[in-house]
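To fix ideas, we give here one paired sequence and structure record:
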Amino acid sequence: MQLAFELSGEHETLPKAEVFACLRTLNVAYEERIFSDRILVIDAQLSPERELLDVLAKRLGMTHHIYEVKGKCVPAEKELLEIVNTADLEAVMGEEDTFAVRLRGEHKNSFSVKRNELPMIVGERITSKGYKVSLKNPSKTFVLLLTAQTCFFCVLLHSVKKKQFEATKPRFRPFFLPGVIMPKVARVLVNLSGLNAKELFLDPFCGTGGILIEAGMVGARIIGSDVQERMVRGARENLHFFGLPGDCVVGDAAQLPLGDNTVDAVATDMPYGRSSFVSTSRYKNAESHAAFLERLYQHALDEIHRLLKPERKAVIVSSSPPSHYFYPKHDFQLLETHVYRVHKSLNRYITVLKKE
């Protein structure tokens, strides 16, 4: 089937990368068809279809809606109506079903009629086939999805619930510190790691537990560590608050009490502030903050490599590009890097590594 994903505008590359990561995690074969104006269209082989789409919709953080594409055309009224005429509406609509037509996509198109008239025109054509309109509470929603060059005639399959990320925002947690990663971004990190439900997930610099929370929300077994006892207590409190099983330990990220090749996925936000420099006695003799960070990153990556199972992934958030700390001796394959702008003076780099 052909699927369209209406992606968030929060970041240029992360939403698309997250969709592909989730499809691979769910073992869904796919082929990209179009990526334009925050619309990603793929051909996907889904079996069982409904179950996998439900899981996908619950996991994604930077996608607004998922659609099934029933037809596509250039943005012109005549061609659009022809697509509607030839679409297999019986496969979508039952005898008692009602429908509404919505318009999505921010791109200015070349339709000869006004944008707000398009849903009415298409709705009239569907009504002529014997189906009833219900604008307030439709059984099915048809969507005209507009990009620069194409109009897609779609059926809405899922809308990603925004409330799931509202509930886990830092200010609603019992233990909160400013400057932490927001839930949507944390969910993207978890998804990029290729984590499956019931697998073991590690955050070796867990802080207040934000990434652990999102890993727990997708059904993983979670463990975190932090060098500061205060952070570990707070992370445990946050996990308990959301009813998530798992544990956090006070420990050095370069020497964790776990066996070799035992962890299925890692995602972590590496320390970068001055507080991390003074709190880690292991590196108290480092000649500078920059030297401290470089050494810490290298030792932490060595440990992540030891713990991670072969062919599995680690997602690293850092204050500098991976070229500043990533070395071939770690025996990782660098898969992708995304630059995430926190504010004017701070960029964070999200790097996906795969253990050979």
About this structure: The first strand starts at residue 2 and ends at 7. The chain has ten helices and 15 strands.
